[in-house]
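Project channel, design review

CF: Before we commit to the Mesorhizobium shonense constructs, I'd like one complete example in the thread so the newer folks can see what an input/output pair looks like. Taking Glycosyltransferase RgtA/B/C/D-like domain-containing protein.
RD: sounds good, go ahead.
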Amino acid sequence: MTSLDGFFDTRPEAPVRIDRWTILILFGTIAALELATALFREINWDEFHFLSLVFEYKRASLSLALQTFHVHLFSWLTLLPTDEIGAIVIARCLMWLLHLATLWFLFKTAENLVSIRGALWATVLYATLSFVMRSATSFRADPIITALLMGALFGLTRDRLPLRLLIFSALAVTFAGLISIKSVFYVPTTTMVATLQLVRIHDKVLLRNMVIALAIAVAAFASLFLGHSASLAQAGYQAGNTLTSAYNKQLVDSNLFYGARFLTYSLAVDALQWSVICVGIGLAVARTIINSGAERLRALTILSFASPLLCVIFYRNSFPYFYVFMMAPVAVVGALAADKLGSLSKILGAIPVIFVALAVGHAIPEFQRGQSAQQSLISAVHQIFPDPVPYIAQTGMVASYPHAGFLMSTWGIEEYRGRGEPVLLHAIEKERPLFVIVSGPALSAALEPGTVSIDADEGLLPADIAALKENYVRHWGPIWIAGKQLPATGGSEATFAIHIPGPYSVTADAPVEIDRRLVLPGDVVELAGGTHSYRGGVAALRRGRNLPVPAREPPTAIFTGF
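CF: and here is what came back for Glycosyltransferase RgtA/B/C/D-like domain-containing protein:
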């Protein structure tokens, strides 16, 4: 039996030679899997939302200042000769490069604090977590801010800390904060690393330089945020209220362990990685207890890298994509386990290889969740409506067209029901959206009753459900267009209301009367807003001049999960 004597020994580990071919194969496999994920994996609804904010900014209709700074970085996407899916795939390739940068920063940070073997373990551990494999290249804020913040931590953990490096790290934190306020969750780790360096170097010049870098960062944040706000449609006047609402919703009013089901899944699927992390945390705690002075501070600093794990307790949006952000620093703590576990047996020393082998097994089923259904839907929208028109959907899926209504995320639905205002009814009256994409539980329950099962507090308000049913008819699969379903009148005259004026194509089995004029099947009639008369059999009115119906079969599912 292998002895555990000295397992919690605080002596520095001996340098370990790592075969270059092993490293190349491990990271080459990881990089290839992540690139394939970026190119082929299903696009999540919030990736479409992230892109839609860019198009809103270019249309000068974006008014939300918080967490929208990325629109300046990706405005060039609106100029590409491709559809929304093509734009997101191209953006994902950039996310892939940022993820590779994150892996590099993680490796160098762990090497600065622990050892080369620990750095290898930490990097492979993080990269092969199932949720990281899924979401590391997604077009979201998380891959961007993770690269920036891990770059800042890498800069702060170096032996030499010239002023320019401190300014670089501070500005990286600034840009991360502008892109997402969740960047604040790295503050404990960043503070501990800075404190360790001050104690280690014990130089007043370093303290002065840190203060200068911090002042530059604060000034840069303020100026960039004010400039960004001023460039928006309504100058971001609601930023304070939005920040307060987000704080209350995400931290104060949220149920504890809101994302527990995702953590449970990760603990089961990534049991080996979590075991290594737990060993690392145990070693960090032991070294904190055993040591004193600077060594204790060093152990506390390494332990502080695990602080983002606390987010799972109180942060509402601890969804799978959040693990890309949360687990990058946590992996550094796992690096402590490398030399200890590697010295116990050759099998344990091969754990990084096992990580990658398990990741390959987890990744293969994910590629079955392709983009064909989403591509079919986007192509259909552009075929039916070649020019941009307003529409309603769960999210801004057709980013190049103006999205009416609101973002129907779980948080968005909760906020919407809390206000109690029929937002979609108002949007129909004011913005006159010409079609609806039934792509989410709330819209499915409203227009396709029985297809989904949701709680009463997860659906739309009755007034909005009635407005959708009254003003839209199915055209092709999940695409419903503005129109009316007119029942047979039995020889008498009936009335109907039009809220979206314009040309309407008539579908019927026989001629009918509209506003006491004879209308043949296939005719197009101009209908003004207001009440109109109708006489005849069953008929349907569709807004537009005999809009095309795609010949292919419509998709049955657009989004299948995270």
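RD: helpful, thanks. The chain is about 55% helix and 10% strand.
CF: The longest strand covers residues 479-486.
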